[in-house]
Specification:
The complex is a heterodimer of chains A (465) and B (465). With 465 residues, chain A is an alpha/beta fold. Chain A has 18 helices and 14 strands. Chain A folds into 3 domains: 136 residues, Nitrogenase molybdenum iron protein domain (Rossmann fold, 3-Layer(aba) Sandwich); 112 residues, Rossmann fold (3-Layer(aba) Sandwich); 144 residues, Nitrogenase molybdenum iron protein domain (Rossmann fold). Chain A has a 6-stranded mixed beta sheet with strand order 1-12-11-10-13-14, with helices on both faces. With 465 residues, chain B is α/β, with parallel strands linked by helices. Chain B folds into 2 domains: 245 residues, Rossmann fold, CATH 3.40.50.1980; 159 residues, 3-Layer(aba) Sandwich (Rossmann fold), CATH 3.40.50. Chain B contains 17 helices and 14 strands. Chain B has a 5-stranded parallel beta sheet, sandwiched between helices. A 4-stranded parallel beta sheet of chain B has the order 3-2-4-5, sandwiched between helices. Chain B has a 4-stranded parallel beta sheet with strand order 7-6-8-9, sandwiched between helices. In chain B, helix 14 links the parallel strand 11 and strand 12. In chain B, helix 1 crosses helix 7, helix 7 runs parallel beside helix 10 and helix 12 packs parallel to helix 17. Chain B is globular and about 75 Å long. The chains are: A alpha/beta (465), B alpha/beta (465). At the A-B interface, helix 1, helix 2, strand 3, helix 3 and helix 4 of A face strand 1, helix 1, helix 2, strand 3 and helix 3 of B.
């Protein structure tokens, strides 16, 4: 097992209880180690992708646009421009002579064709090398077409996803402050860091509406350019997935004085706490809000709790592993699993910070493996060692789990099941139950001990004659 | 909770002369190379570029095969982009050799490393000299800048590079080479059966039929079993013959492909033909097999052919004069068009994402004498073009990969899924396309798609058609 751990990565793995907690993180990935991480472009693309009435043009060769075509489950209640994949599809001559002309022509024709409310232009690795002046082209087209055309500095090699989040936040920030805020009341907020996967942001918006609060801008799930432009008029920023949109919240605080709170909508405690945090913020403006929120939570739990007990009967004592993009989700998942009587024995993320990992360590059970920027070899070794019943991750982690005969729950941006909110906790429990309790595990080699038919076959005696 | 999925807006615009690409009908060049390297025994694909490329391609390939697909990366950052990626490449190779125990590493470049001008063959030469005292696994390399050609050019170039860098002059042996192109795992397995039934010792390159469609295991295999043995590739210099599929590949005489190279360098006779899809193309393949084996087609395949013809007759009225749009990789769509033409389906549009310059001639040759009118043939298309033409042509069904689903849904006609990627259905990698057996399966699927459509559209609810 130890031979599967890369020497250079030993300090990026910690077992709770074995010595004082210290985990190295925020490092460049080790060359050759098959990191599960992506790149700067990926970070920008995932954050801005759900803005449904904007044109998202990827300036580069075809791959970056092709691999991000309609892959997120980010739904829109209106326009669906975000589900199309636009590229300048740079060719050799463009690389030699520069891609600015092509970019200009592409932007012009796409804006004419689709009449978007704004355009985001993503730079890719190669654009950073050939030195196209994105800023200048965007400025020119913006003046000609009368819509914001915003360059996103997302050259893939200039860091990992986190730098991409920052580039996306900077791009959105340029939109802000341009919209009319005169009709926004004092009980108002923006939802940051929710991407409306499987319609999740609609669940959360409904809770806020029941509390009597108006949501100004969804950032970015089911997002609209016009809403983001007037987001600075909201009284509060509620930030989930802090890795991706915290930079924007900070910029807004500095420029517009908008306060922010950090939340998570996964699991029972975190979902309820998110609503209470918001209620407490507004209680001076609306004294009835705390009571209304308590009633909301009570109503939801009255429906949810008995159902969870049913699942718990089967799931008690089962073990889970978590490997996710950002660490915030891991915190919520650990708590959510406890409600199902399950323990988390492996917890890791692609891009957690020191702070994240300290918090993670503090809520984990002793013996839990905590890991930063893992790879298939390590993850599979940990899954085997801890003999887990379910692995929670994304599409890159799924085949690792399945190949070993371990259940799986997709908690990444491709999921088609809403996992946020109280109803999301039910969906989560249902999905966990469906995978963990499937009879197929009885037959897989890990449980049956039989790998391939024919190996070590127990033939009748006559056969050897 | 879920919003209705709307159709791609039908903005009417001339399809010609657009600079931008919308919803590409191709993937980027290195992706094809990684598949080839994954199809060699002990092979680890390695992308020399930023981390995102490897992760995006892994994700994409996993979505089709539902199998682990480890791709190592040199994970270049900003510093390496400026000073050169050589040190990271070397470090990455050592890491992969050490941790994976790779039998072969296949290095493909990306647009980043091509543009910064890394001399990969030179770096690999240095690497071999620096570590001359170690027993190093073979490293092959291929240049795959994504701004020049699609994933299919990358695939073909990688097959050629492997043969060029490994095949050795030697005593004539009884092996034959087979370069089938990008076909399914099931197709490769069937090809193996066919060669075996002729008593031939075939090296099929690549062979990811087991590495990307392996059994359930109790451990995560660092190197999945299966793949073309390196020794078998080395022996191709003395092979009896080679078979290469692809109607739009560079002519054998130009030595631009594996078969061309074997012919030019070692005098191995090349049998070049289109993909054996449908009756006539399969006949051509079996005829070539007979001539190389000096033996008649074994009865089991003769029976497959007979049953196929019988099915042609039994099923012809369900599909006769139905109109179809065929899209995807050029070699694949030529084969599919040939097949559709011979069963009485009228291909109205044949659209490829690549730009070989040879598509139109190949399609017309395949249709000669069988169709009332030659189909419209388009190279270098994206799905915006395909949608634009398909809305006017109003086909009865589509034949292609998952990326045409939304268009088929918009036009309310069936999509018969073939090729790659199939990530909106289960088991895409287990579909057969090739030889009499594959034609039978495909024929049944096309007929059933038409029957199902008739059944669904009817008010009667026929239970007997």
């Amino acid at each position: 097992m130890s031979d599967l751990i890369f020497e250079e990565r030993k300090d990026q793995i910690h077992r709770k209880g074995e010595g004082p907690f210290k985990l190295a993180c925020n490092r460049d990935s080790l060359a050759g180690a098959v990191s599960q991480r992506a790149c700067v472009f990926c970070g920008s693309r995932v954050v801005l992708y759900p803005i449904a009435d904007a044109l998202h043009l990827v300036h580069g060769p075809i791959g970056c646009a092709a691999y991000t075509w309609d892959i997120r489950g980010a739904l829109s209640s209106g326009p669906e421009l975000h589900r199309l994949s636009f590229s300048t599809d740079l060719q050799e001559t463009d690389v030699i002579f520069g891609g600015e002309k092509k970019l200009y022509a592409a932007l012009t024709e796409l804006i004419d064709r689709h009449q978007p409310k704004a355009a985001f232009v993503y730079s890719t690795c190669i654009v950073g090398i050939i030195g196209d002046d994105l800023q200048a082209v965007c400025k020119k087209v913006s003046a000609e077409k009368g819509i914001p055309v915003i360059p996103v500095q997302s050259e893939g090699f200039k860091g990992n996803k986190r730098e991409g989040y920052l580039a996306a936040c900077k791009a959105m920030f340029t939109l802000m402050g341009t919209g009319d805020t005169s009709d926004i009341g004092p009980l108002s907020l923006n939802i940051l860091g929710d991407f409306n996967l499987a319609g999740e942001i609609w669940i959360i918006r409904e809770y806020f509406e029941r509390m009597g609060i108006k949501v100004v801008a969804n950032i970015t799930g089911d997002g609209r350019v016009g809403d983001i432009a007037r987001a600075h008029g909201a009284a509060l920023n509620v930030v989930q997935c802090s890795g991706s949109t915290m930079d924007l919240a900070k910029m807004m605080k500095e420029k517009y004085g908008t306060p922010f709170v950090k939340v998570s909508y996964f699991g029972i405690e975190d979902m309820a706490e998110a609503l209470y945090t918001v209620a407490r913020f507004f209680k001076d403006k609306d004294p009835g809000i705390l009571v209304r929120t308590q009633e909301l939570v009570k109503e939801e739990l009255a429906v949810l709790y008995p159902k969870l007990q049913e699942f718990r009967k089967d799931l008690e004592g089962k073990k889970a592993a978590i490997y996710v993009g950002g660490a915030f989700k891991a915190f919520s998942l650990i708590k959510a699993f406890r409600h199902l009587g399950m323990s988390v024995v492996i917890a890791g993320s692609q891009t957690g910070t020191e702070e994240d990992y300290e918090e993670l360590a503090s809520i984990c059970d002793p013996g839990t493996i905590i890991v930063d920027d893992a790879n298939p070899l390590e993850l599979s070794a940990f899954l085997k060692e801890k003999d887990v019943d379910i692995f929670v991750g994304g599409v890159k982690e799924r085949p690792i789990a399945y190949k070993l005969g371990v259940g799986f729950c997709d908690h990444n941006h491709e999921r088609k099941e809403a996992l946020e909110g109280f109803v999301g906790m039910y969906n989560f429990a249902l999905e966990v139950h469906r995978t963990v309790m499937s009879p197929v595990w009885k037959f897989v080699p890990r449980r049956s001990g039989k790998v391939l038919a024919g190996e070590g076959a127990d033939l009748p005696k006559e056969c050897s004659l | 909770m879920s919003a209705p999925v709307k159709n791609i807006k039908a903005a009417k615009a001339p399809a010609e002369n657009f600079v931008s690409t919308t919803n590409a009908c191709k993937l980027c060049k290195p992706l094809g190379a990684t598949l080839v390297f994954k199809g060699i025994e002990g092979g680890v694909p390695f992308l020399h570029g930023s981390q995102g490329c490897a992760t995006y391609m892994r994700r994409y390939i996993i979505s089709h095969f539902r199998e682990p697909m480890d791709i190592a990366s040199s994970s270049l950052g900003e510093k390496q982009a400026i000073y050169g990626g050589g040190p990271n490449l070397k470090k990455g190779l050592l890491t992969v050799m050490d941790k994976y125990g790779a039998g072969l590493i296949g290095v493909a470049t990306t647009c980043l490393t091509e543009t910064i001008g890394d001399d990969v063959p030179g770096i690999l030469g240095e690497f071999r000299r620096e570590f001359a005292d170690l027993e190093l696994a073979p490293v092959v390399n291929v240049s795959t800048p994504s701004y020049s050609g699609s994933h299919m050019e990358g695939f073909t170039a990688a097959v050629k590079a492997v043969v060029e860098q490994l095949a050795q002059a030697g005593e004539p042996n009884d092996s034959v080479g087979c370069f089938p192109g990008f076909v399914s795992c099931a197709d490769i397995r069937h090809l193996k059966d066919v060669f075996a039934s002729f008593g031939m010792n075939a090296a099929i390159l690549p062979d990811y039929s087991e590495t990307l469609d392996g059994p359930a295991l109790d451990d995560y295999e660092k190197l999945p079993s299966g793949g073309t043995p390196v020794a078998a590739i080395r022996a191709l210099g003395g092979a009896k013959a080679s078979f290469e599929f692809g109607a739009t590949l560079a002519p054998v005489g130009e030595a631009g492909t594996a078969a061309g190279l074997l012919a030019a360098r070692f005098g191995v006779p090349a049998h070049r033909m289109g993909l054996p899809i449908g009756l006539r193309a399969s006949d051509e393949f079996f005829k070539a097999l007979e001539s190389v084996a000096c033996a008649p087609t074994p009865r089991r395949h003769a029976l497959e052919r007979g049953r196929l013809l019988d099915a042609f007759v039994d099923g012809h009225k369900y599909i006769s004069q139905k109109r179809c749009v065929i899209y995807g990789e050029e070699d694949l769509i030529v084969g599919l068009t040939s097949f559709m033409a011979e069963i009485g389906v009228t291909p109205v549009l044949v659209a490829g994402g690549g730009r070989s310059g040879r598509l139109k001639a190949a399609v017309e040759a395949a249709c000669e004498g069988l169709v009332p009118e030659m189909p419209e043939v388009r190279e270098g298309v994206d799905f915006y073009d395909i949608a634009d033409r398909a809305r006017e042509l109003a086909p009865d069904f589509f034949l292609g990969h998952s990326k045409g689903y939304r268009l088929a849904r918009e036009l309310n006609v069936p999509l018969v899924r073939v090729g790659f990627p199939i990530h909106d259905r289960f088991g895409g990698h287990r579909l057969h396309h090739l030889c009499y057996l594959g034609a039978q399966e495909l024929f049944d699927r096309v007929v059933n798609a038409m029957i199902e459509k008739k059944q669904t559209d009817s008010d009667i609810g026929y239970g007997y058609i």
